[in-house]
Amino acid sequence: MNRLLLSSRYLVNLAVIAALVGATAILIYGLFVLAHIMIVLINSHDFTREAINTITLSFIQSIDLLFLSIALYIIALGLYHLFIDRSLRLPNWLKIDDFDELKVILVSNECDYLSNSYNRKPYGKFNI
Fold first, then answer.
1. What is the number of domains present in the chain?
2. Buried b (16+ CB within 10 A) or exposed e, 13-32
3. For 38, 73, 107, 124, which has the most beta carbons within 10 A of its beta carbon?
4. pLDDT tens across 20-53, in order?
């Protein structure tokens, strides 16, 4: 039974893989959104105050997608480090010694994403 419980920690590999796939998908989508915003910005010749506010909000929303992908990547690294291989060399700024530190990363990112999404409204051609 001990051996079974100790080897079950490798089931966390599924969570690590899911987080990496999610991070990659969101990163690619965020880059496409950012490219789309740039193309629309270049083709648009609208320099009104409303257009400036719209494009600013659109850039902030696209950067949020990139932050979310980075947070998922860090969570995948943290899960792998905590459950699978403690010898994984993490950068000095990313020291994860327990599960609570990993949860802090997730919760702080969720708070950031939710606070930025609270005031979002659809904005015509810049809507993402």
1. 1
2. eeebeebbebbeebbebbee
3. 73
4. 999 999 999 999 989 988 888 888 777 778 877 8
Domain of 110 in residue numbering reads as 2-126
Q: How far apart are the first and last CA of the chain?
A: 51
| Angle made by CA atoms 33, 35, 36, in degrees to the nearest 5 | 65
What digits encode the pLDDT tens for the residues 84-117? 888 888 888 777 888 887 788 778 777 766 666 6
pTM (two decimals): 0.74
Q: How far apart are CA 85 and CA 78, in angstroms?
A: 10
Give CA–CA dist 106/75, Å, rounded. 7
